[in-house]
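*** Fold description ***
***
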Amino acid sequence: MIQVENLKAAYGDTEVLHGVTLEVKRGEILVIMGQSGCGKTTFLRHLMGLQKPIGGTVTIGEMDLTQMTQDQYVEFCRSVGVLFQSGALLQSLSVGENVAFPLREHTCLAEPVIQIMVRMKLDQVELRGVEEKLPSELSGGMRKRAALARALVMDPRILLLDEPTTGLDPIIAAGIDELVLSVRDAYRATMVVVAHDTDSGMRIADRMAIFRDGSLVEVGTPDQIRSSEKPYVRQFLERRPEEPEDRPALFGAGR
């Protein structure tokens, strides 16, 4: 479904992805993990087409995302649902209006049909009866669910989720994990999930990709990742800190 070849990305003069090659199989959940600042979200932004690479290609189905026309890109956006790390709900709109927003932007559906679809999607994420509430009136877990309902409202074939359990307590996070799995099964969607929690990543992944400093270190099933002998993967899974000589100097040289 998604083929990334030799992807390179930069912010200004700083290269942050160094020739990443990775495929996402149709209907699978690929979980991306790695330390903060390793390029996970930047990689996801390239899958969304929000950022242009300085090298390499991103192919979705048969289309090269880096070569799409504007009309092709708009059509592509209709087939992709995105859950941003913060949820990115529009605070001035009600939950129902947030979920309805993609339908009003990209379709010509009648308003009664839109309202039915909004209720259906909120029901699917177990948020019945919150259409009139503002995002600020919801808990963190409920805001994540509302943002997921918005990502699902166009029935996408690809879902891109950026740290869906960040900031949630373990019980709520486990509920989001179960919801992600149920969505995959219901929609048969291809999903790329950036995760920070190892247990959560292992729970939902068909395969995992471990990043370090803008490079891809390891790809495999959760069992293959658990049994990896690569030093960084072991360090990451075992939550061992960097050795002193690998850490950046915080206060300069000592006296």
Remarks:
- The CA atoms of residues 13 and 54 lie 11 Å apart.
- Strands lie at 2-11, 14-24, 29-34, 55-60, 63-64, 80-83, 158-162, 190-194, 207-212, 215-220.
- The first helix runs from residue 40 to 48.
- The mean pLDDT is 86.
